[in-house]
């Protein structure tokens, strides 16, 4: 009898222990579930707060870029004609000086712009975030009624065209300075195409849109008609052709098709202009009238140095580098888009003198002159 009681007590004890273990396990599981749910709620809340803070930062950033219109007007002396630096299809550029002593370049956009205020601010914010030593820095903007102003850093030496096409000033640019300018433009374009947050196609790369700092380093300017892409996008189409003939890729000028390779074409034209000191337009060569691209192609085909700016011909030690630059320029202006290199390949070609280059085909020849800006 005693033995049976002991067995019964032992069984009850085991049962109680099992129940306690099961209850404990259930409590632990429920606690874990509750804890996970609470953590998820907290994460969502923190994420929500982060998004709010991010949006606040975006607003704060765009507001921090805003300049009072009256301040900019005073800085340019009421947009005085004497302060005018240049004019293009998208507006007039004035020199100005802020109260803190900073010199600025103010682009006063044409009043017939179709862009809304929000779109304008978004593009300003994007361009302001582009930071590269070979891009002109955007300080900010001003909006008042129909007035839209872009405020950029002022570069004392002005634009490349003022040097390269001037018989006297281009003597200041020896080959090493020109080569530095070419490579700097290439690096700036590479950043826009591949290294910035979005792929950016400039669409109006030309000598007058390359500005020079005090040390003659180049900076790409005028982002008025840039086109933004996601990195997986490669090309686009438009019925509104904007840009400058002479620098414009044939597929863009004829059909409105553009891509990063359109900028590569414009870069190739720039390279040939920098080497020759000639604009890409009809000019007289002996008794023949021809365009720069055909002149460069024929000279390269014949192995002559006729195309080289006479101011550079004394630099015999640089002859191979100059002719290699012509070769790269001709590769960039190929009529077939697929035959043109990417800007990463171009930069590699300039940085690797021993790298073999492909043989270019004859470039397209339809230009009407680089000073013919269009917007249609």
UniProtKB/TrEMBL annotation:
GO biological process: one example: response to abscisic acid
Membrane spanning residue stretches: 16-38
Protein name: Protein kinase domain-containing protein
Keyword set includes Membrane: yes
PANTHER family assigned: CYSTEINE-RICH RECEPTOR-LIKE PROTEIN KINASE 29, RECEPTOR-LIKE SERINE/THREONINE-PROTEIN KINASE SD1-8
Residues annotated as binding ATP: 107
One Pfam family hit: PK_Tyr_Ser-Thr
Domain called Protein kinase: residue spans: 79-355
Family statement: Belongs to the protein kinase superfamily.
Entry membrane topology: Single-pass membrane protein
Taxonomic source organism: Tagetes erecta (African marigold)
InterPro entries: Kinase-like_dom_sf, Prot_kinase_dom, Protein_kinase_ATP_BS, Ser-Thr/Tyr_kinase_cat_dom, Ser/Thr_kinase_AS
Keywords linked to the UniProt accession: ATP-binding, Glycoprotein, Kinase, Membrane, Nucleotide-binding, Phosphoprotein, Receptor, Repeat, Serine/threonine-protein kinase, Signal, Transferase, Transmembrane, Transmembrane helix
Database matches in PROSITE patterns: PROTEIN_KINASE_ATP (PS00107), PROTEIN_KINASE_DOM (PS50011), PROTEIN_KINASE_ST (PS00108)
GO MF annotations in UniProt: ATP binding; protein serine/threonine kinase activity
Subcellular location: Membrane
């Amino acid at each position: 009898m005693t033995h049976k009681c002991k067995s019964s007590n032992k069984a009850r004890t085991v049962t109680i222990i099992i129940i306690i273990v099961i209850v404990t396990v259930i409590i632990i599981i429920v606690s874990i579930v509750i804890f996970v749910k609470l953590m998820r709620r907290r994460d969502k809340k923190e994420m929500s707060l982060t998004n709010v803070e991010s949006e606040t930062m975006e607003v704060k950033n765009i507001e921090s870029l805003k300049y009072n219109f009256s301040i900019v007007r005073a800085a340019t002396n009421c947009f005085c004609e004497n302060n005018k630096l240049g004019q293009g299809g998208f507006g007039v550029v004035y020199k100005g000086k802020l109260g803190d002593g900073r010199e600025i370049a103010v682009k006063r956009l044409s009043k017939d712009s179709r862009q809304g205020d929000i779109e304008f601010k978004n593009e300003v914010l994007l361009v302001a975030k582009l930071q590269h030593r070979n891009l002109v820095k955007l300080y900010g903007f001003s909006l008042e009624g129909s007035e839209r102003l872009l405020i950029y850093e002022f570069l004392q030496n002005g634009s490349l065209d003022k040097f390269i096409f001037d018989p006297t000033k281009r003597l200041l640019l020896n080959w090493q300075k020109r080569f530095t300018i070419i490579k700097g433009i290439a690096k700036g374009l590479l950043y826009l195409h591949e290294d910035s947050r979005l792929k950016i196609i400039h669409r109006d790369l030309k000598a007058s849109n390359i500005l020079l700092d005090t040390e003659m380093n180049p900076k790409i300017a005028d982002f008025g008609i840039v086109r933004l892409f996601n990195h997986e996008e490669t090309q686009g189409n438009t019925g509104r052709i904007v840009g400058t003939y002479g620098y414009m890729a044939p597929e863009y000028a004829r059909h409105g098709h553009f891509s990063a390779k359109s900028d590569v074409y414009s870069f190739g034209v720039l390279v040939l202009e920098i080497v020759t000191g000639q604009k890409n337009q009809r000019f007289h060569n002996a008794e023949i009238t021809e365009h720069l691209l055909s002149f460069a192609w024929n000279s390269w085909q014949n192995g002559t140095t006729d195309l080289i700016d006479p101011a550079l011909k004394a630099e015999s030690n640089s002859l191979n580098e100059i002719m290699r630059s012509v070769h790269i320029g001709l590769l960039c202006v190929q009529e077939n888009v697929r035959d043109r290199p990417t800007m990463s390949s171009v930069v590699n070609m300039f940085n690797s003198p021993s790298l073999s280059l492909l043989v270019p085909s004859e470039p397209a020849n339809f230009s009407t002159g680089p000073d013919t800006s269009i917007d249609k």
